[in-house]
Amino acid sequence: FSSQELTRHYLDRIQRLDNQFNSFISVTEERAMADAAAADQRIQSGNAAPLTGIPIAHKDIFCTQGIRTSAGSRMLDNFIAPYESTVTANLAAAGTVLLGKTNMDEFAMGSSNENSYYGAVKNPWDTAAIAGGSSGGSAAAVAARLTPAATGTDTGGSIRQPASHCGITGIKPTYGRVSRWGMIAYASSLDQAGPMARTSEDAALLLQAMAGLDPKDSTSVDQPVEDYSARLNDSLDGLRIGIPREFFADGLDSGVEQCIRDAIAELEKLGARVTEISLPNSQLSVPAYYVIAPAEASSNLSRFDGVRYGYRCDNPTDLEDLYTRSRGEGFGAEVKRRILVGSYALSAGYYDAYYIQAQKIRRLIKNDFVSAFGQVDVIVGPTAPTPAFNLGEKSDDPVAMYLSDIYTLSTNLAGLPGMSIPAGQSAGRPVGLQLIGNYFSEARLLNIAHRFQ
Ligand code: GLN
């Protein structure tokens, strides 16, 4: 079948089914059909690459030229991006077909996708459950087969945790592996984009197209991109797996734990050798992250002032009123909370006590990983402590919400790659197995995931 037929199939599914999940903010039907027609021509002329004509959806945090890019916020509800992000440009150049832009927590702040101006995303496995966040729209859309794949971003777990809750595969690459140009900034020292897909094989193809040095992002890394598909079938014989004791402590759901233990036994059957390790400072990742990320966010979000672009309040009386009401009306509650926390942590008199202290903890967390990777090749554990919780269950309790990120945050603080793959169910809801690798070991993670799947 042609790309046009394939694209029509997914557009029809979105139209028929997405009212149940709310996974898309914008559906770009015309653009999709035009992309598909161009792809079909390339296929006919014998110039097809592996992703030519494959439909994809992008998290609405990536600027897409001429298309609304909202970041899940009222602030950017009217924002038509005037330029294209490197990630979406690379995927378009690889031949993908853009179906639309997916729902997300506002400015990627959240773990449940309940912080979106466009409403919560519902989990396709059980619509009473959250899809996870902040890339919940991408995860739900892939799980519901509304798109074969999607992009996500992960600042503290936002690719891995929704992938886990929706029973799909997602990888957050090493910090710097993928360009952040044109990706609306949340916490710049932690943000990283990656693919969300059904299988590791698909994720490998997508990451291949996304990754690489970009002169427009000074933190992107000048290191050749490996051929991720070539090593998918490598043997796991002798692979040294580390199981961090701290990831199996209080708060871990017993059904999740059972799935993870079964997965580890399966990896042993494939030839892996398992050792228990310790990441002694990992318990400090929640407080350190929830100082550093809001601090960076408070600075990044200062650009939304009602003057240049985005939401502007009606009839401002003076400049102060313009700023105050544009930001007051344009941002949601969680975003405001983080701007306040972040500004406080960065303010004179508190900077040393909070921000500097958090940066020191960040270094300790990184050092834990450096010493662990002296002993093992990969670290394995749960992605999230529980399966998807119910919509509304934690929305009044930010601290309970933040604790659901306990296993994912340390990876971002250290800049390491992390992946979540399906590993069974607890109470009828999907469970994700997390793989954490050393810097630039994406090929190895994809290989382990592929052998496991
Ligand atoms: N849940 C975390 C937060 O709210 C992580 C979000 C993310 O990775 N973008 O900050």
From TrEMBL:
Annotated active site = K59, S134, S158
**Can you state which reaction this protein catalyses?**
L-glutamyl-tRNA(Gln) + L-glutamine + ATP + H2O = L-glutaminyl-tRNA(Gln) + L-glutamate + ADP + phosphate + H(+)
| Any single Pfam family the record assigns to this protein | Amidase
Q: What class of enzyme is it?
A: ligase
Q: Which residues form the Amidase domain?
A: 5-446
Task: List cellular component terms (GO).
Answer: glutamyl-tRNA(Gln) amidotransferase complex
Lineage, top-rank taxon, reads: Bacteria
GO molecular function ontology, one term from the record: ATP binding
Cite the EC number: 6.3.5.7
Alphabetically sorted, this entry's keywords are: ATP-binding, Ligase, Nucleotide-binding, Protein biosynthesis, Transferase
- What processes does the entry annotate via GO biological process terms? translation
User: Could you tell me what this protein does?
Assistant: Allows the formation of correctly charged Gln-tRNA(Gln) through the transamidation of misacylated Glu-tRNA(Gln) in organisms which lack glutaminyl-tRNA synthetase. The reaction takes place in the presence of glutamine and ATP through an activated gamma-phospho-Glu-tRNA(Gln).
Q: Which family does it belong to?
A: Belongs to the amidase family. GatA subfamily.
Assembly and oligomerization: Heterotrimer of A, B and C subunits.
Q: What is this protein called?
A: Glutamyl-tRNA(Gln) amidotransferase subunit A
Please state the gene responsible for encoding this protein: gatA
